[in-house]
Specification:
By secondary structure, this protein is mainly alpha-helical. The chain has eleven helices and two strands; from the N terminus they run αααααααββαααα. The longest helix is centred in the last third of the chain and has 36 residues.
Length: 318
């Protein structure tokens, strides 16, 4: 069933509150909003229009939640606080990660070791966090002190959709199909080869990893499938399932990153035929390895974060 504007507004409000306040505030908002809508409807206002008007009068859910939690928005000032926080959060979620990847690629091209890549990358990412936080805050302090008008005005169309819990049949089928495709690709690569060079099919993954290393990969994939089935059977994510999912994702990422770091992941004949024979130097191959590692780490991080977010939504919804 599609969530109403009221459902979305209440969810957007209570998810910002401490656990002990969420049920009480949810019940209070449901009652007060329903009463306000009924009062407008009795005066002849259409229900949909009355609902939008009531929610608009209540204002930004983040500001309302701050009032319930007795958490004043005074770091910069209530006029700009929420806009500043959203901009800063977006920048901190993207800029340091891009800085880390850029430095790591540069160190790889320069032929430096993995230690230098990680160390310089982390130092640059921390520096980016400091600069982004300082300069973004400074801009908003200037806007606040000069009395500039805020261009960020909240309305009900900005309400987020009711978040899913990853427990639907579509989620289960999608997860199992993706795992099946990946497993089939690994087996096809092993026995037939997925890359064709000069009319001959060659494997991307080194045959030396079979059967033991790749058997571990397939077992981890079965574990991912079992988690998806458990989520569907339970009807939602839980803290326990999020913990198991985290462990499986970390094991999978660690295995691939270890093989990549030792130069064991890609088949030598594949590297020679596709790269070395075409004049690609070792620096470019190092960049490819770094990008592959970043992709593996990024997929694992997203899988972990997604599981914990869905578990938290389940806890909030009660």
């Amino acid at each position: 069933m599609t969530a109403t504007l009221t459902d979305r507004y209440i969810t957007a409000t209570v998810r910002r509150l401490p656990q002990q306040l969420q049920t009480e505030v949810r019940d209070e908002l449901q009652t007060s909003i329903a009463d306000a809508i009924d009062a407008r409807a009795e005066q002849g206002e259409p229900l949909e229009q009355a609902e939008r008007a009531v929610l608009t009068d209540l204002g930004d859910p983040a500001a309302l939640a701050a009032g319930y939690a007795d958490r004043p928005l005074h770091l910069i000032g209530p006029k700009y606080y929420l806009f500043w926080w959203r901009v800063l959060t977006l920048l901190l979620a993207t800029v340091p990660a891009c800085a880390f990847v850029g430095v790591a690629i540069g160190k790889a091209v320069a032929g430096e070791g993995i230690g230098a890549m990680i160390g310089e990358g982390i130092a640059t990412a921390l520096s980016a966090i400091v600069h982004v936080s300082f300069w973004t805050t400074l801009v908003f302090v200037i806007l606040e002190r000069t009395g500039s008008e805020s261009t960020s005005k909240w309305d009900v169309d900005q309400l987020p959709q009711e978040p899913g819990r990853g427990a639907g049949r579509g989620d289960l089928i999608g997860s199992l199909v993706m795992l099946a495709i990946f497993a089939a690709a690994l087996l096809w690569d092993r026995f037939r080869g997925v890359t064709v060079v000069d009319g001959e099919a060659i494997s991307v993954i080194d045959h030396a990893l079979w059967p033991w290393w790749m058997s571990v990969v397939l077992v981890l994939m079965l574990a991912e499938g079992a988690i998806a089935i458990a989520v569907y059977a339970r009807g939602s994510w839980s803290t326990g399932l999020a913990v198991i999912n985290t462990a499986v994702a970390l094991c999978t990422a660690s295995l691939f990153l270890t093989l990549l770091g030792r130069g064991m992941l890609f088949a030598p004949e594949f590297v020679h035929a596709v790269f070395a024979r075409n004049g690609v130097d070792s620096g470019a191959l190092a960049v490819l390895a770094v990008l592959t590692g970043v992709a593996v780490a990024g997929i694992a991080a997203w899988d972990i974060i997604d599981g914990w977010m869905k578990a938290r939504r389940t806890a909030i919804a009660g």
